[in-house]
C-alpha cells in the first residue's frame, strides 16, 4: 500500500524543487553538460521487487533528471518553436494535477469544463475568430490539425451524400485536398491518419518566403479541402488566407488554417495584419504551448460549424453522462478521458488580459527583429523577411553552419538548431519565450557572433 502519511511533505518538496529549477534556469547552460547526460544512465536499472520511499523517487528525479534536461524554459532557448511556461500557467498546471480531473464529461467535472468553455470564448475573441466556433483542447497542433480536418472530412463527405463516420473511406467518392509545397509535415501526418493518404494531395506553389503564390493556385472543383498556413516553421511567413478563402468559398471548399504559432499574430493589433481574413476560413489549429507559453501539452482546434466537429468526435454509451445543456468537452476531442489542459490557457488569459497577450506577441517579434539586425550588422546573411518570430541566418556553407551551430550549442549561452531553407543550409532562431529580454538577445548575439567569427577566421 503506498504511503500516504507524507503527502503534504512530498508535494511541498516537489514544489520547492520545481521552484529552484525555474529560479536557476536563466543562469545555467541552456544545453545540459556532458556529465549530466552521462548520469541519465542511472535511470536504466531493473525494476525492484519492493520499490522505495516516495521521497527517494523525487530526489532521484531531481538530482539526475533536472541537470540533464535541455533548458527549454530558458529565455535563451531558441530551438524549434518552444514556449517557456509562464509562472501562472505552471502553477495552475500543478494545482490541476492535484485535482486530477478527467474533463471528458461536463456534468461530472463542471469546474474544469466551465473554465475550458470560458478559455474557448476568450480565445475566439482575442484571435478574431467567429464566436459561434467550437474548440477542442488537444495535445498540440498535430492533433489540432487532425481534429479540425476530421470535421472537414465530415462536412465535405456529407455534402456529397456520404456518411464517412459510419461507412469509412473504402468505396467513398474521391475528394481533392490542396496543400502547399510548404505545408507542415504534421498536416500530411494528419491526412494520413484520417485515411486521405499523405501523398494524395495537390500542391500549391509557393514564393521565396514559403507563402502560397495565389497567382499559381490550383483550380478548385468538386468536394475540396484546402490546407493553408499562418506561420511557416522556417520563415514565419503567412499564406494569403483572405485570397485563398475568396477562391474557395464560391466553390464550397473547406479552408483549414494551420496556425500552430502564427495564429497568435491575430491577438496583437500590431501583427494582426499577417492574419488578415483568417476569420473567413472554416477551421484553425494552434498551440498554446508555443507563443502563449502554457506548459506542454496544449494545442487547440477551432471549427466554425460546431456540428461537424461534434459529428466527427462525439460518442454515446449507457454509462456516460454526455447529455447536458452545457458544452460537453468530449464531444469535440479525439479523447474521451483527458486532463483539463484548457485551465492553463484560462490562467494565462486571466493573468495577462488582452493587452498582455498582445505584448507577449509583440515582444517575440521585436526580439526576432533585434536578432536579425545584430546578425546583419555583423556581416551575416538573413534568409527570410522577419515578419514574426522566426529568423534564418547563414554563416557560410552547410559544413560551416553545422560547425558553428554545434559550437553555439556547446557554449551553452543559448540554443539554436539547423535547417535547410529552399536548398540553403541555415541556423534557425525561433523567439517564443515570455521571459526573453533584449539583454538575452544581446547576450546570445555576442556568443553567436563570437563563435561564427572565430569559425570563419
Ligand atoms: C506550422 C506548424 N504546424 C504544426 C506543428 C506541430 O505542432 P506540435 O508539435 O505542437 O504538434 C508545428 C510545430 O512547430 C508547426 O510549426
Explain this structure.
This protein has helices spanning 7-24, 34-39, 54-68, 87-99, 110-127, 141-158, 164-167, 185-193, 241-248, 306-313, 342-377, 398-411, 438-456, and strands at residues 134-138, 176-180, 202-204, 224-229, 254-258, 283-287, 299-303, 381-382, 390-394, 417-421, 424-430. The protein is an alpha/beta fold and 457 residues long. It has three domains: 1-30 and 32-69; 93-348, 3-Layer(aba) Sandwich (Aspartate Aminotransferase, domain 2), CATH 3.40.640; 363-456, Aspartate Aminotransferase, domain 1 (Alpha-Beta Complex). It has a seven-stranded mixed beta sheet, with helices on both faces. β8 (381-382) and β9 (390-394) form a beta hairpin. α5 (110-127) runs parallel beside α11 (342-377), α6 (141-158) crosses α10 and α12 (398-411) crosses α13 (438-456). Pyridoxal-5'-phosphate binds at residues 81, 140-142, 184, 186, 229, 231, 233, 258, 260-261, 287, 299. Residues 81, 140-142, 184, 186, 229, 231, 233, 258, 260-261, 287, 299 line the site of pyridoxal-5'-phosphate.
Amino acid at each position: 500500500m503506498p504511503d500516504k502519511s507524507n503527502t503534504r511533505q512530498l508535494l511541498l518538496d516537489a514544489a520547492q524543487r520545481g521552484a529552484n529549477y525555474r529560479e536557476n534556469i536563466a543562469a545555467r547552460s541552456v544545453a545540459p553538460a556532458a556529465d549530466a547526460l552521462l548520469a541519465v544512465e542511472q535511470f536504466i536499472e531493473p525494476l525492484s521487487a519492493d520499490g522505495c520511499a516516495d521521497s527517494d523517487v523525487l530526489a532521484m528525479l531531481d538530482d539526475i533528471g533536472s541537470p540533464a534536461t535541455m533548458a527549454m524554459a530558458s529565455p535563451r532557448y531558441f530551438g524549434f518553436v518552444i514556449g517557456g511556461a509562464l509562472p501562472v500557467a505552471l502553477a495552475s498546471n500543478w494545482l490541476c494535477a492535484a485535482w486530477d480531473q478527467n474533463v471528458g464529461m461536463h456534468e461530472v467535472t463542471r469546474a474544469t469544463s466551465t473554465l475550458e468553455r470560458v478559455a474557448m470564448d476568450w480565445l475566439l475573441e482575442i484571435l478574431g475568430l467567429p464566436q459561434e466556433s467550437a474548440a477542442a483542447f488537444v495535445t498540440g497542433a498535430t492533433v489540432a490539425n487532425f481534429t479540425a480536418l476530421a470535421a472537414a472530412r465530415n462536412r465535405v463527405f456529407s455534402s456529397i451524400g456520404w456518411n464517412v463516420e459510419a461507412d469509412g473511406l473504402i468505396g467513398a467518392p474521391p475528394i481533392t485536398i490542396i496543400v502547399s509545397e510548404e505545408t507542415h509535415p504534421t498536416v500530411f501526418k494528419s491526412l494520413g491518419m484520417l485515411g486521405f493518404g499523405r501523398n494524395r494531395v495537390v500542391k500549391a506553389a509557393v514564393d521565396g518566403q514559403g507563402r502560397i503564390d495565389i497567382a499559381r493556385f490550383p483550380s478548385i472543383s468538386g468536394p475540396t479541402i484546402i490546407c493553408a498556413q499562418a506561420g511557416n516553421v522556417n520563415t514565419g511567413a503567412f499564406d494569403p488566407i483572405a485570397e485563398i478563402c475568396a477562391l474557395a468559398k464560391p466553390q464550397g471548399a473547406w479552408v483549414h488554417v494551420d496556425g500552430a504559432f502564427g495564429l497568435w499574430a491575430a491577438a496583437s493589433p500590431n501583427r494582426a495584419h499577417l492574419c488578415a481574413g483568417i476569420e473567413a476560413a472554416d477551421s484553425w489549429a494552434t498551440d498554446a504551448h508555443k507563443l502563449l507559453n502554457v506548459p506542454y501539452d496544449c494545442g487547440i482546434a477551432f471549427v466554425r460549424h460546431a456540428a461537424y466537429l461534434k459529428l466527427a468526435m462525439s460518442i454515446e454509451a449507457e454509462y456516460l453522462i454526455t447529455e447536458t445543456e452545457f458544452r460537453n468537452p468530449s464531444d469535440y476531442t479525439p479523447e474521451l478521458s483527458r486532463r483539463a489542459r484548457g485551465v492553463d490557457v484560462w490562467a494565462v488569459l486571466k493573468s495577462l488580459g488582452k493587452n498582455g497577450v498582445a505584448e507577449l506577441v509583440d515582444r517575440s517579434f521585436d526580439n526576432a527583429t533585434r536578432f536579425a539586425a545584430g546578425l546583419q550588422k555583423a556581416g551575416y546573411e538573413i534568409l527570410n523577411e522577419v515578419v514574426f518570430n522566426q529568423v534564418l541566418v547563414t554563416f557560410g556553407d552547410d559544413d560551416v553552419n553545422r560547425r558553428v551551430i554545434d559550437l553555439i550549442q556547446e557554449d551553452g549561452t543559448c540554443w539554436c538548431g539547423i535547417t535547410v531553407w529552399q536548398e540553403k543550409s541555415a541556423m534557425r532562431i525561433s523567439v517564443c519565450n515570455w521571459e526573453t529580454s533584449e539583454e538575452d538577445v544581446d547576450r546570445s548575439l555576442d556568443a553567436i557572433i563570437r563563435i561564427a567569427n572565430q569559425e570563419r577566421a
